[in-house]
Structure formats: C-alpha cells, structure tokens
Design goal:
- It is a single chain.
- The protein has 292 residues and is an alpha/beta fold.
- It has a single domain (5-160, 185-219, 261-275), classed as Rossmann fold.
- Helices cover 41% and strands 15% of the residues.
- It contains nine helices and twelve strands.
- It has helices at 13-24, 42-52, 68-71, 73-94, 126-141, 162-172, 189-205, 223-234, 277-291; strands at 5-8, 29-32, 56-59, 97-103, 146-151, 154-155, 176-179, 183-184, 187-188, 211-214, 221-222, 241-244.
- One of its GO terms (molecular function) is dTDP-4-dehydrorhamnose reductase activity.
Length: 292
C-alpha cells in the first residue's frame, strides 16, 4: 500500500486522531504502530519510507512515561532522540517532509509569560532532555522540510488521559484534591491532529515555513481549574474539587510550574491557532464520556 502520508505511533491517542482526520478528508495515509515500525532501527525506517513513499511523515511515536524516563533515560533517548534522528535521516535522503511532535517539557517551566517558539529551552527532566534531542535532530537534518510541533496536556478519545481519569474519579470519590500551582493548556488531540494535517499540507504547498510551532489550546488554567471544568461538564458540583500544591504529589520527574506556550508562528503559515481550551473541552466531552 502506498500513501502520501505516513503516521508513526499510529496506535496512540494522537496518532489515531491524525489518521481519522486524514481519512475524513479522503487522504491516502499509512498508519504504523510500534510493532509495525521501530523508529530506532535506521534500516527499517528507510525501508518503510521506500515502500510507502509518503510525501509527509508525522512522528507520533514517543516514550511518554515521564517518571520512568528519570531512571531509564537511555531507553527514552533511543525513542525520543535517536528515533526522530533516524526518521530525519531517511526523510532527507528521500525528499520527505517530517512533522515531529514534541513537548512543553523542553522548557524550564519557570516562566511568567507564554513561551515563544524561539524562547530558550532548558529541560529539567530526562523526558524533556530526550524530547529536545529529537527536536534538534529534526531541525539540524531538515532545515527546509523539518517541523517541530510542541504540545502539552493532551487528552482525547483514543487513550488513557487526565480527563478520562477525572470522569472515573468523580463517580467514586466524594472530593478530589488537585494541583493548583501548575499552569498549562489542556489540548484536545483532535485539534492538534487538525493542525498537523494543515501544517503538512502547507509544507507541501510551500506556504508553511519549516521550524518550530506550538500546538496547544488557547488560554490557560491549572489542573485544579481543568478538573472543575470537567466536573461542570458532567453536571457534578465543582466545589467537590479542592486545590492543593505539587508538594502533595511528589514524583520522580519535576513538573513544569508554567507550561503556557505562545502561538505566534502559525500566522506565518496562514493557519489559525487552536481554539480555547474550555471551548475544546465542551466539544470533545461527549466522545470522552462515551469512551470512558
């Protein structure tokens, strides 16, 4: 089978939505999960691109176990750093556009205003370091056809995520204590998938400059504020959600206190940034409840 798009990590939450978006538009696409393609295997990557002959590769494959990466950084680096490098090498050889999905964790997380696309990076976790390595490989090897799209706080119908967890907990807990000192942008995978497809098309048309874009929802909130919005969507009393601090939930990997990303670069590509997070949650919610 040949297709103009190849999606790695197609079995994941975001990969499923990218495939669904392309299918809805009648685009030819090949989706490969991690069993079908090991992106750390250079020969397998080259062979896969030669077989399917895509015009665009969207790399949704990633090590996403943030805490585990602290003790297994080499393994995380193989997938998050070496994998994108192998893809970029093959895309450079075969003249293919590459869209690499990255993360807010590449920043220090101590900002006070939205991080611009060209803001200095400074990851404080193994996960962030490994994802930054992947970004750097793509931008280095594909200066004209490499795209990095940073995202954060993802949720969607196709996998486990914070929204689904809160929906479950609402049904079994009288009250919930949720962190109120981490700020970010809850982002619906369907919204991100849409922008990835538009960006890939812009790359092929020559209307979207290569480089870094931020694929997160507009606005900002905390996990506490997000959870209250989820309770409201359920028709539950938001007062059952109580604020707490990160100190109450100590984890191996430090969480960014401030993960708000700026979206100015989309204008250069003629693409509207993603809608506000609360509006997206309202639109996404029926499917999230149905798949819970």
């Amino acid at each position: 089978m040949s297709g103009s798009w190849l999606i790695t990590g197609a079995g994941g939450m975001l990969g499923q939505d990218v495939m669904a978006r392309l299918a809805g538009d009648g685009e030819r696409a090949v989706g490969l999960d991690r069993k079908a393609l090991d992106i750390t295997d250079a020969a397998a990557v080259r062979a896969s691109l030669a077989e399917h002959r895509p015009a665009v590769v969207v790399n949704c494959a990633a090590w996403t176990a943030v805490d585990d990466a602290e003790s297994r950084e080499d393994e995380a680096l193989a997938i998050n750093g070496d994998g994108p490098r192998r893809l970029a090498e093959a895309c450079a050889e075969q003249g293919v556009v590459l869209l690499q999905v990255s993360t807010d964790y590449v920043f220090a997380g101590d900002g006070e205003k939205p991080y611009a696309e060209d803001a200095p990076t400074g990851p404080r976790s193994a996960y962030g370091r490994t994802k930054l390595a992947g970004e750097q490989a793509v931008l280095e090897l594909l200066p004209e056809t490499g795209y990095v799209v940073r995202t954060a706080w993802l949720y969607g119908a196709g996998g486990p995520n914070f929204v689904k967890t809160m929906i479950k907990l609402e049904g079994i807990k009288d009250t919930l204590d949720v962190v109120d000192d981490q700020r970010g942008q809850p982002t619906w995978t369907a919204d991100l998938a849409d922008r990835l497809v538009l960006l890939g098309r812009g790359a092929l048309a020559g209307t979207a400059p290569a480089g870094v874009y931020h694929g997160t929802s507009g606005g900002e909130t905390t996990w506490f504020g997000f959870t209250r919005a989820i309770f409201e969507a359920l028709g539950a009393d938001p007062e059952r959600v109580r604020p707490t601090t990160s100190a109450a939930f100590v984890r191996p990997a430090p969480r960014p206190a401030y993960s708000v990303l700026g979206h100015d670069r989309w204008s250069a590509a003629g693409i509207e940034p993603i809608q506000g997070w609360s509006e997206a949650l309202r639109k996404a919610f029926p499917n999230l409840v149905a798949t819970d």
